[in-house]
Amino acid sequence: MNESSCGYDRFKYSQNTFVLCDGANSCKNGGFLANSLADSLVAKWPNFSDINSNRIDLIYEVILTEHREYLKKKLEAASTIVGLKTMSDGFEMISIGDSYGEIYYKGHNGWSKIYSMPRDLNEDGNPWQLVGSEVLEKINYKMFDKTGSYCVFLLTDGAGNFLPEKSYNEITELLGENRPNSYDLNFFSTDLVLKAKKNKSCDDISVVILYLDF
What we know:
Blueprint: E1 2-4, E2 9-14, E3 17-22, H1 30-44, H2 55-72, E4 81-87, E5 90-96, E6 100-107, E7 110-116, E8 140-144, E9 149-155, H3 157-160, H4 165-175, H5 182-198, E10 207-213
Antiparallel strand pairs: 1-10, 2-3, 3-4, 4-5, 5-8, 6-7, 6-9, 9-10
Helix pairs in contact: 1-2
């Protein structure tokens, strides 16, 4: 695992739980909400047993608690979430808003993208729901339980909007059959940040790369 982040973006990890939140720059308390959300999720998400059948509801309740608190206090804040938690037989992911979660899997014929976490965008390309905003209706949830190796990219829109798919493919091609160490992942994540800047991203840029074996 490695990451690069800045600005109103907040990345936290603990107990095999990884959460990236992008606080809205247009809201003065966006960074505070992003930080609070990330802290709450990495503290409480690991406590839910792998065999819990209502995991989505439990995760959603953690998020709703933060959401309602900020609405109650009438604090100007909004944030996205993209997160991952490993389990005994795989991993689960969540998303809210317009951040990115790109999942690659190494099969018999090499690496390929198998899934992209849903992004909650309206017809104009803007997020229609955010934590802390007037609209929050659901979380996007996905479980991955296929045995093998995964490379997962968590990105805020300041990175994801400015990186073509070939940027991820180049990294997985370099990985090949090798298991990367933290220095490799640090190099790859920093390179993606630089590419996003080169492609004229003026937003906060955060990139998290996770390599997982099951």
